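Support reply, case 0932

Customer input (verbatim):
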Amino acid sequence: YRKVGIVNIDDQANAAKEVFKMGFIDTARVAVWGWSGGGSATLNLMFRYPEIYKTGISIAAVAFQLTYDNIYQERYMGLPDDNEHGFKDGSPIAHVDGLQGKLLIAYGTGDDNCHYQNCEVMVNELIRLNKPFAQISYPNRSHSIDEGTNTKRHLYSTMTRFLHEHLPLTPIAK
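Our regenerated output:
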């Protein structure tokens, strides 16, 4: 409560660190991806824990919590005036400067849940900070990015190519 994008992100990163201790993970090739809230989590993980997450795919993410549906956001975060720090610190846009890995952002321009302005503010911040990233927008597609022939296939093919390019099956020699 009042810490969406903070507690869950720290928990995920701490769990990854514990798994790393088991010794069977190639820590140079850890990827994360998510959609909607998971897309926001992907951004937060990539930005706040770049030593863990080397590659990420964020789909239909909320970049700034104040731009999301207040019925959902205020239920878990309280009112913005009463939790300004939580809204800001839980938003990926506040941590973009931490990006070190490879990032793909995908969005439907007609997203009726996580509005496309989230993509635009994130892209503008990545550009402002000169952070490299890849982006694909699907014209007039909704939050599910499944309207039109082959749309979902194209999205998942794009995701697969991105992962193969940045996390090849054979580890890169050190």
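We compared this against your earlier run and they match. Two observations from our side: Residues 151-166 form the longest helix (16 residues). The two ends are 43 Å apart (CA to CA). Please reopen the case if you see a mismatch on your end.
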